[in-house]
Amino acid sequence: MTPEFRLAPLRVEDAEALSAFEAASRDWFEQRVPPRPDAYFDPVALAVILQGMLDGAEAEQARFFLVRAPDGTILGRVNLTGITEGPGGWQAEVGYRIGPDQAGRGLARAALGAALHLAREIGIDRLEARVARQHAASIRVLEANGFVPTGRALQDAELHGQPLPLLHYQRDL
Fold this sequence. Notes:
Organism: Limimaricola variabilis
Protein name: Ribosomal-protein-alanine N-acetyltransferase
Number of helices: 4
Radius of gyration: 16 Å
Shape: globular
Strand order of the largest sheet: 1-2-3-4-5-9-6
EC number: 2.3.1.267
GO molecular function: protein-N-terminal-alanine acetyltransferase activity
Mean pLDDT: 93
Number of strands: 9
Structural class: alpha+beta
Pfam families: Acetyltransf_3
């Protein structure tokens, strides 16, 4: 059963709780995706990063959300970044991460679905996503939300010194 949640806009005041979430989930995330900078695990440094993300020069091109339980506990994140106007309308890249305690419970699928609704509300016409080729669970989440592979070639990321092949997905809203 999918846990109850809400998407809440990220705030600088969330730095301490977000840093704790990232630290508690660090080993699990880093098995699948490139690591966060060390500053993400220091609440004071993370507050500075968040301030820049939320108020900096590119703030209008992104929306950041926390996936929160009814009691306020952080369960994950969903980000809409690179919001730009292109030939087909407004587009953005979506990224998400759900903590290991919630894996396999449908939360990523539901949180991405909620993010699709928010993206439509702010006028985004198409979302794109990059996913590691071997991350079957994340691919299922994208496909369950109507994303389709584009076949577009992407430069590999790097994970633990090894190439991490990426796939490109998109969904028209």
